[in-house]
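Fold it.
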Amino acid sequence: MNINATLLAQTIMFAFFVWFCMKFVWTPIVAALEARKKQIADGLAEAERAKHDLELAAKRSAEILREAKEKAAEIIASGEKRGSEIVEDAKNQAKAEGDRIIAGARAEIDQEVFRAKEQLRTQVSAIALAGAEKILAREIDAKAHNDLLDKLVAEI
């Protein structure tokens, strides 16, 4: 065969192959590349949005944690305050109970003192009457009278 004819046939075949590839192969490949490019861009955008959402969630969780700590501190402070109030109330009640017990004991002591005084008065009056009887029964003698009074004083 002739080299020129072969070369011309190969050139025509090559042109047909390029046209065929451009018409049937190149378009789907470019479409697939564009779709892949769009999918990658969407994935990157979604990753960026997810990163942003993660940062927002981290900030929000830090804020919620801070609020929870503040609330816990407030609850603890109010619990401590209530505890000190309860202790103060208990102290006041104990003091009032102690005062009441002391007042009762003092009243009882006063009653016992009064009873003792009454018994003492009764005994003194009985001794005085006994002494008066002895004095009157004896003759009136100053020395005997003083002796009896001394004995009465010793008895009292």
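The mean pLDDT is 87.
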